[in-house]
Amino acid sequence: AVTFAIGLAFGIPAVRLRGLYLALVTLALAVAVGPVIKRAEPVTGGVSGLSAPQPPVPGWLAVDPDQWLYLLSLVVTALMLLLAANLTRGSLGRALVAIRDGERAARTSGVHVSRTKALLFAVAGAYAGVGGGLFTYAQGFVAPESFTLLLSFTFLGAVVVGGLGTVIGSVLGSLFVVFVPQYAGDVNQALTGVI
Length: 195
Known about the structure:
The chain is mainly α and 195 residues long. Helices cover 76% and strands 2% of the residues. The protein has helices at residues 2-14, 19-39, 41-44, 65-89, 91-101, 103-108, 113-139, 149-162, 167-187, 189-194; strands at 50-51, 141-142.
C-alpha cells in the first residue's frame, strides 16, 4: 500500500512527460532515492540498512526455512502474475493498449489518459514493493546499496528480452537475465557481463 501511494505520488506529475523525458525522469528518480534513504537514518537505517527476520515456517508444514521462503515467494509471484494477467485483459489493459497505440485516439475513445498513466505508476509501485519485500525476506537485510542502477538496467534488459506488453514476456526475460549469465560464466567469466 505504501509503495502504491508513492507510485501514485510520483505518477501524477510524471504523466505530463512522454518518451525519452519520462525515461530520464524515472532514471533520475532511481539515482536520487538512494541518497535520500541514506539521510533518513531513523526510519531506514541509513547506510547500515535494516535487518528483516524471515517469516516463520507454519507448524503444519514440514519444510526447511529456505524451502518455506521459496514456496512463499513462488505463491506470491504466481498471484502477482495472475493479477497482472487479469489487469491486462480488463479495461485497464485495453486502455493501456489504446494509449500505447496513440494517446490522442485513446482520449477520443473516452480513455482518461492522465488518470490511467498515474494508476499504472501506482500499480507498478505496488509490484515493486511486493518484489522488494520478498527480496528483503530472502536476504534478511536491505540497504540502499541493495538496489543499484545496474539492477535497474538488468530489469530493463529483462523487459526488452522478454518482450514489451506481455506478462509471459516478463517471466521469460527474468529467466533469461538470471540463468544465461550463470551458464555463460561456466564457459568463460568474461562472457557473463557481455551477454
